[in-house]
């Protein structure tokens, strides 16, 4: 059951007219191709872990303000496990989650990362639900955080106008099937044959074992935009349809639809092909850009903060990312304490 939610974006907002002159873009060009008006990039020295911490603190605060679950005679620890979904970790090793748990003062809880690119949040959500269902944990913190601005090549206009930085977090706890906050089902998939469509070629064991085959440019993000567009639309559409059938929902039953905020044209194409009734889709890509794994929880936090999500609504999530990976989830929206704005972050963060 979902009981806490929050999102953050860095204070630095970069409008389309502020993009590098060498990219030869203007506001109309970027909006027409992506639907994005503003994206947020971190300041020098700010890491993925810093954004993850801020989102986690906020989500835990929202969960702490929720009504008690009444399942334990003794007050449980804040969480029993921490899962971080990211494609932009602070370092290749170790995983980010143990350090995040330490910075939050959670003690020696289980903590690990999930690497499923822009599908990472849905994959991490499914992992958390499985951990809770298996009785391994009572309460799990899931954080999705990205600092894509550090992966973009200076001359890559295609990726540079789209990708951005941000983090979102949710707190899950054990609950009863069918109560508000319940996660009712998942659909997950992958196709490794498309692994080169979205990638960072360098920085891993392949490059270190054959350094003569790689250059510094291979440390930057690469994407074959047209191919990715078609895969994203097809995979998210089919995954959503499969999940709707599995949980017994019709398209008319879906009150809110939140897809990975990849590109406004992709979002419209998926909604049209499912097909969803008009007015059900939630999107904030115009104000935050594509924040990878963080995009779905950021969109949820933004919508919750603006009263676009209400207790008991049926919510469909779907995602697509590098790998290739995709995944969808269905949930009943919970009763949450007020969710703070995703904007205006950058002040002091509570530490252990």
TrEMBL record:
SUPFAM superfamilies: Thiolase-like. CDD domains: KAS_III. Residues 113-192 form the Beta-ketoacyl-[acyl-carrier-protein] synthase III N-terminal domain. Keywords: Acyltransferase, Cytoplasm, Transferase. Its EC number is 2.3.1.180. GO terms for molecular function: beta-ketoacyl-acyl-carrier-protein synthase III activity. The keyword Transferase applies. The keyword Cytoplasm applies. Pfam families: ACP_syn_III (PF08545), ACP_syn_III_C (PF08541). It is an enzyme of class 2 (transferase). Residues 245-333 form the Beta-ketoacyl-[acyl-carrier-protein] synthase III C-terminal domain. This is Beta-ketoacyl-ACP synthase 3. It comes from Streptomyces durmitorensis. The lineage of its organism: Bacteria, Bacillati, Actinomycetota, Actinomycetes, Kitasatosporales.
